[in-house]
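yo, Endonuclease III is done. seq:
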Amino acid sequence: MKAATVRYILDTIGEMFPDAHCELNHSNAFELTIAVLLSAQCTDETVNKVTKDLFQKYKSPEDYVAVPLEELEQDIRRIGLYRNKAKHIRNLCMLLMEQYGGEVPREHDELVKLPGVGRKTANVVVSNAFDVPAIAVDTHVERVSKRLALANWKDSVLEVEKKLMKQVPREEWTLTHHRLIFFGRYHCKAQNPRCQVCPLLDVCREGKKRMKTSQIRKDK
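structure:
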């Protein structure tokens, strides 16, 4: 894609969502890591409801390890896959205590070694907690990137990330990540994207197709 088109997309989304930010409530890197881990296949809204009490009860890795696993499971029961996530949290906290002095590591390569922490989670943590430029590709970022032809339809999540990193200036990676999420969450939704009022319709292959299909139905 031409650099001018990419710039147009970034600027337009920036105008639509100038205040885009991480919507997971947290006060430090450790809480953010737990929140992102919990957010897999779950809405940020639900995670925030759970962590409101969770982060009052558990302040450190030692706190999570000190209670029976069943108790932690009950504390996050409203979260999808809560049993697996409770195990990941326990194992993650034990590893932090054993190898990292109870602190969340700042390096991406170290973060992905933690139980339950994949590339996306690590990118969110380094960018939001440690101000290291990164683009985390979640379902919203992937969907929007492919619809706007910033990536190919069949690209893997890693391929989408690499293409965005190549096309977006490094100093804008983190901000672009947040704006793409807001754009996908509140405007370019999976089921009912707001194509008819979208300022990016002229560069969106998905939008053009949907509008054409809609027009054909009207003409019948």
